[in-house]
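Hi X.,

You mentioned you wanted examples for the new student's onboarding notes, showing what a folding record looks like when two proteins sit in one file. Here is a clean example. The first protein comes first, with its sequence line followed by its structure tokens.
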Amino acid sequence: MRILVTGGAGFIGSHMTCRLLDEGCHVLNVDKLTYAGSLENLGSHLNHPKHRFEKADICDLPKMAALFNDFKPDRILHMAAESHVDRSIDAPQIFIQTNVIGTQNLLLAGLDYWRKLPQDAQDSFRFIHLSTDEVFGALGKDGFFNENSPYRPNSPYAASKASSDLLARSYWKTFDFPVVIMNSSNNYGPRQYPEKLIPLMILNALEEKSLPIYGKGYQMRDWLFVEDHVEALWIALNKAAPGETYCVGGGNDFSNIDLVHALCGILDEMQPRKSGKPYRDLISFVEDRPGHDFRYAIDAGKMKRDLGWRPKADFASGLRTTVTWYLSRQKGLAAIPARERRGKA
């Protein structure tokens, strides 16, 4: 297959790009290379003979249209997005521009390209749109999000992704454009930019900095190992029916405070502090984030029933794999300016 990937130098995108190349696909990797994207994430796959990189902005409609017509993809995997809630509170306009306008441009360019394809190519074509469970808002102590959950976004980031989901859905309903929407839970694993909870806590701990936790850390999240997400996307590229929506979750529900305690325990074992004190002594509690959703949890039953996908990673081993990766790159990651590490748990 020929796959046009957006955001393929980012966290999830780089893992997916490498998987596609390993599967023998031709990949056009379109990435703006903002602060969270790096070609180093691709490793040796950057120079793979079937990999083509194009530094471009999905908000540039003529450029996107030209890339479609030049590369002639069989599938689109749209992963480019602004994705950090804290940043969306500080600068919501950037999120609207990239996540809404950028998605609209890709849908428009994709539709125009798709309409010119022969019938058999139209039938097999898919536009996979990667989204988040945050579009559904917050859960209480019980229950799970699924494909029928109402949209109730509570942050500018979530609202921008909800808007992009609805645009994608409208192109299926109005134009029969073969869109598939994937709403995933919180991802974790190697290569994640250290503004997100897990890498931020790891690097702050190693640098003897405060581990800031919003409120009392009782917010709950469902954690999905990035390689399990990649497997779900690969299956969707090959098997998903047009117009469908799938929720993808790891089934690992942890409060933020329990997760940070687990990370501290792993670090205590793998790289103890020189002082001999436990890393959890670095935890500090800060004023809660505005509109902070209490709990996310995914019912991935449809993915399991319809597409035969199941998460494979054990959460404890996944965390260890993640910590090991950051330990091995501690020096290089420490060079990222403190102002860029804007996350809290």
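Then the second protein repeats the pattern, sequence line and then tokens:
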Amino acid sequence: MKNTDIFESQSIPKAVASLAVPTILSMLVMVFYNMADTFFVGQTGDANQVAAVSLAMPVFLFIMAVGNIFGVGGSSYISRCLGEGKMEEVKKTSSFCFYGGIASAIAIMIAFFLFVDKVLISIGADENTFTFAKQYLLYIACGAVFNVIGGAFGNIIRAEGAAKVSMTGMMLGTIVNIVLDPIMILTLKMGVAGAAIATVIGNMCTVVYYLFYFRKGTTMLSISRKHFAVTKRIVKNVFAIGIPASLNNVLMSCSNIILNMLLVSYGNSPVAGMGVAMKANMLVIFVQMGLAMGIQPLVGYCYGSKNTKRLSGTMKFAAACNIVMGTVLTVIYYFAADGLVRMFIEDAEVIKYGSMMLRALMVSGPFIGILFVFSFSFQGMGQAFQALILSVSRQGLMFLPIAIIGNKMFGLQGVIYAQPIADIASLVVAIIMFVQILAKMRKNHEMEA
């Protein structure tokens, strides 16, 4: 069976399952990796090391944002090109993303080594967390190329329908990471530095696996230098979607920095508590995000081939699935919050804050999946403006003012509930934009008929 058969001939539920299930599974493994990272650092019994990882996370997200420029932007354009039958453009785009990602990652690595101290001061590291956070970030910077390319090509390979290959590569890296975490952090007593080294080695394994996939020659993509081209069309289409997608990571990074700065005024325990709560909440977020991410190539292909009915049906089915999963997980998490936080660290104060914060984050649990469906569908359709607005809304225009105002008006409670309120507000914006896009598509289809 050709990869494109998923896009063209399979029923919507089967096509969504073929693309989304491998993506969800790979995201689940990533959840366990993120939980394992915090869990094993927490086993050191040092709340400052847990807080340091939380403080460093926004910078780690920035590196991932660069991978998203080429991964999300490239996969969106590639899936639309496949729908339009432009095979040579597919090869040129994937090669551009490969070499562009490498060059960008090297630039990031150099910048980190030059300005790491200033970065740490700006994100709120104090005398208790500065050294730990610096160790973590310097090792992460050394592996920036593997982080960027591994993340980017997980998306790009999925764009041609090879969801299982993408899943295997991501799972390989995260499993290696999980296995190495207790060895590096506890056995070798390297603490947060060990967590970072394990992450780099895991990303390296992912990239090596993807390189072997390209060597097999069964892909429609290319990383060959002979296909490398920097054309106005490729740059425009990749960056038009990639930048809004990466902006989401950048704004997530900025919002986390501001969140930590607001929380640190209440002490390091709330910072550590929110770090644990956000790690635990990743299961809810990543499962629903995985389904939405999985349908992106299908949405892009349908958009490129002008199949409005299949596009709309795919989004409705994915949204319904996410509502069910989100509701079930929210109920479980609400009642199991104390136990989930206690799994990460045995610190009474951190547990108190963490469980309270986790329950607050779950307020948007049943609805956040619909927002992800809209977000990844906008990216798949190449709707740059809508993708940009949605990225800016959730982590910028909505979250930041809500968090700052909430802190002034309601103190710690106002900070804790800022994210779920921003999620729900952004969902309303997404629904309005999608209704407008669908009406325009139907109008164009009627005019062409």
